[in-house]
Amino acid sequence: MSSGIRVAGGIAKHVKKKGAQQAAYQGIQFLKSYGQHILKNPMIVNAIVEKGGVKSTDVVLEIGPGTGNLTMRLLETAKKVIAIEFDPRMVVELERRVSGTPHGHNLKIISGDFLKVDLPYFDVCIANCPYQISSPLVFKLLSHRPMFRSATLMFQREFAMRLCVNPGDPLYCRLSVNAQLLARTTHILKVGKNNFRPPPKVDSSVVRIEPRSPMIDVNFREWDGLVRLCFGRKNKTLGGIFRAKTVLQLIENNYKTYKALQVNNGKGVSAMDMGSGGVGNVSSKMLGAATMGARKKGKFSQKGKKQYGLGADEKMDIDDGDEDGNGITSVDAVTPEFIRGLVEKVLNTDGFVDMRASKMSQDDFLRLLATFNEAGIHFA
Fold this sequence. Notes:
Layout: H1 2-22, E1 24-25, E2 28-29, E3 38-39, H2 42-51, E4 59-63, H3 69-77, E5 80-85, H4 88-98, E6 107-111, E7 124-128, H5 134-142, E8 150-156, H6 157-164, H7 174-182, E9 183-191, E10 196-197, E11 204-211, H8 220-230, H9 238-242, H10 245-265, H11 271-274, H12 284-288, H13 302-307, E12 318-319, H14 336-347, H15 362-374, E13 378-379
Parallel strand pairs: 4-5, 4-7, 5-6, 7-8
Antiparallel strand pairs: 1-2, 3-10, 8-11, 9-11, 12-13
Helix pairs in contact: 2-3, 10-14
EC number: 2.1.1.-
GO molecular function, one term: rRNA (adenine-N6,N6-)-dimethyltransferase activity
Pfam families: RrnaAD
């Protein structure tokens, strides 16, 4: 019995040692906390560079270069590569790897957190992205100016598909709508987990993102406020969402708050004034959707927050603007019946009442936002 235990223990130690060796590269231990899965298949690397359309005159931004497998291929093709790497150990390895090569002088390494560094000018972005920051990474790129030509990025497969799917697909969500408002998204290729060292638990996919030019003329703060509310219950009809007591109370509270600000300030205070004035100036924080308003307005009840997918710090600012033509100048004149009437006016336009966010196109959301604005309701 004791002999059997010793043998089992020896096997366990051998397996553990072998696993540690497989998860390392030339003495560098890959860290799961950093999402480090190094792409090892050269055919996939070549395909990403080719699909990325990298030109010999391009400045390429690479996010999370790791040990440099993709970086080395990019240096052979592009004029310059700017690599942003968070792990100091990988920075040292990358510097060692390019040292003495013909293209070493064409590489610039920025050591730091991608979400915190100021991005330099670049023509295209090519990256095997750290999966844990996928969403803020995408929207930070899309908020960068001057606008880049395209980004070819590898993500966890489910996230990648959410970026590209059409209305009606089970994966269609707020991320899909927001990303596709700002860019054309195309699925390029699927990458199996065994193409990485160490293998992740999920498959991956490569997506090409091409920023829209010109950008759609819409205030992104208003857009995101509306879309967030609609996708709180994406399979519920808009009539069911906007007739809910919690939503109507929220609209009423915020409507009154803005009216009070107008009276006290002696001038109109609109969501459009508070917003970016267009998607071209939105920040990555705004796009990342941590909150929906800087001011503390009317709130959902705890039940309402849970039902509509809003956290404790997520609020919706709504304003009647100066263009509604309703002649409402007194806060006391804003009643639940008045608010309900405005909402019903919107719902009864173009069949919105029976629409569901899960099946609504970009044009549907744009028309819905415009109709709310015409009725004097703004989201910020």
